[in-house]
Structures are given as structure tokens and as C-alpha cells.
Amino acid sequence: MSSPENAQPSALSAGSARLRRQRRPEVWAYEVSGQNVVRQWWSYRRADRSKPPSPLSAIQPTAWLAEYTTELLAMLRVLTRLVALEPAQADLLARIVAGPTIDSDALRAVGSLGDASAEDAGAPDDAAG
Asked: Tell me, what's the pLDDT at 127?
């Protein structure tokens, strides 16, 4: 399989099989915690693992497995759906941030906060010696 080094490869290939490029480059560029998902997935399945994550990584298949193709297609479907949801998620977050807030005094007044609230958690206890 050719490495997905750029954000928009023309195709990924494993042996004689080829997976044509997705229409949405955002899928290939999708990141979680600063890591490119497709590239990270690929790094654990490529033949040359110059920096294996653990000694168990030395035990690996010598050929591309059919389940790798299944995993790859499933991952790309999930990433495609996540990318499609981003506008709705951004809109929801913007509405939440712009909306009204409830302070701890209001929550305490209606009995939603007990004696030990999140504000008090971690505060030093004056009675403790």
C-alpha cells in the first residue's frame, strides 16, 4: 500500500488492489489530538515499521490482510460521516456558548448543588491538621 503522506492521495494501493481517492480531502486530513487519523492507522499496518510502538509489533503479517481493507473502508466511512457532521456540531457549540449561563448560586438556590460542590472540591479543609 502506498503511504498516504499528502492530504489528498490520488489512490491508496495494496498489491494489485487500489482504493481511489475520496472526494472530500477533509477525510484524508482528519485529525484527532493533532494526529492524522489515516496516517496513524497506516503507520501500524505498513511493512516497514522503523519505530514500532512495542516489541509485539515485530509479530506482524508478511502480506496485506483482507481485514485491513475492511478496516480501512470502515474508517473512511466513519471519517466521512464525522466531516459531514462538523457544520452542525460547530453550530451547536456556537449556540451553547452564546446561550445563557447558570451560576453556582442559582444552582444552590434550587437545591441542585449539595454541601460539597465542584467549586469546593480540592479546597483545603481548615479543620484538617
From this structure: 52
